From TrEMBL:
Lineage: Bacteria, Pseudomonadati, Pseudomonadota, Gammaproteobacteria, Cellvibrionales
PANTHER family: ARAC-FAMILY TRANSCRIPTIONAL REGULATOR (PTHR43280), MMSAB OPERON REGULATORY PROTEIN (PTHR43280:SF30)
Residues annotated as domain HTH araC/xylS-type: 190-288
Entry keyword annotation includes Nucleotide-binding: no
InterPro entries, A to Z: AraC-bd, Homeodomain-like_sf, HTH-like, HTH_AraC, Tscrpt_reg_AraC-type_HTH
Protein name: AraC family transcriptional regulator
Length: 290
């Protein structure tokens, strides 16, 4: 692992490396060996920060939350801006640095484990900046992982930290999938999801969705299912049922009122859809949440 140990840590910066003796314990621990943190840092306004590697034994995740920088891979230099995330699989040759004019603020994480390669494949091994936006949820997880530096190398805390990394990578994979449009056409799942959200209280048919994606109904349905695992209409219904769960949890509104609010004048039909999606009737769901 290459850590910029000679580069001066900026004010309010964080950097820690998991001791080798603890890594060996994590590798032997069934609850930890899937994924574990090998190093982590937070560099605010990191003027002068730069790194060059010919290869490294673990995986690296870098998240830029402000400012800018650049990443060089295979003699190609790519801009890195606020909201960009980089996933660098083990062994990759790369170079990156903060901008001289607007130095970046970044979180960085080194990790390894039996599932590290699988998560790399799940994210898609982009090895290039992908903009996911400045996500408070992602920042909170990074901040939580950073607390490991206060753990006095407690094994239980590092096990929990590894589980946080799994949750982080799963969420990053979802964000990356949502933000990447399909090559060769204008199909964009994030745009379709936004359209569905706009119509969450009413109706939306396949013709409208396909028209928005500028595709035939057949090709739109095929591409949408490949991206999400569900047909467009079933996905839209699932979004409605999740909204229904929120309303059942957070409001005293009647089931009839909620059904009507989500575009279902027939309460019995709404209840059947709800049970099919959630696994229980709306009445049962509400009582189970009390």
């Amino acid at each position: 692992m290459s850590i910029p140990s000679r580069w001066p840590l900026p004010p309010d910066g964080i950097r820690f490396i998991t001791p080798r003796v603890l890594i060996r314990r994590l590798q032997a621990q069934p609850l930890a060996q899937s994924l574990y943190v090998t190093a982590m840092g937070y560099y605010p306004r990191a003027s002068g920060h730069a790194m060059k590697r010919r290869g490294h034994p673990d995986h690296i995740l870098i998240y830029c939350t402000a400012g800018s920088g650049s990443l060089t891979l295979a003699n190609e230099t790519l801009a890195v801006n606020s909201g960009d995330i980089l996933y660098l699989p083990r062994g990759s040759h790369h170079q990156y640095q903060a901008s001289a004019d607007t130095p970046w603020t970044i979180y960085w994480l080194h990790f390894d484990g039996l599932l590290a390669d699988d998560f790399c494949a799940h994210i898609g091994s982009p090895e290039r900046p992908i903009n996911i936006g400045v996500q408070p949820r992602v920042i909170r997880v990074f901040d939580g992982i950073a607390e490991l530096r206060h753990s006095s190398h407690n094994l239980a805390e590092f096990i929990q930290g590894g589980h946080q990394v799994q949750a982080l990578l799963s969420y990053v994979a979802l964000l990356v999938q949502q933000r990447q449009p399909y090559a060769g056409n204008n199909f964009d799942t994030e745009n379709i999801r936004a359209l569905m959200q706009e119509h969450i209280h009413g109706k939306l048919d396949l013709d409208t969705l396909a028209h928005e994606a500028k595709l035939s109904k057949f090709h739109f349905s095929k591409k949408f299912k490949k991206a999400t695992g569900e047909s467009p209409i079933n996905y839209f219904i699932s979004m409605k049922m999740q909204r229904a769960c929120y309303l059942l949890d957070s409001t005293p509104r009647s089931i009839k009122h909620i059904a009507s609010e989500l575009g279902y004048p027939d309460t019995y039909y709404f209840s059947r859809l709800f049970k099919k999606n959630i696994g229980m009737a709306p009445e049962t769901y509400r009582k189970a949440k009390l």
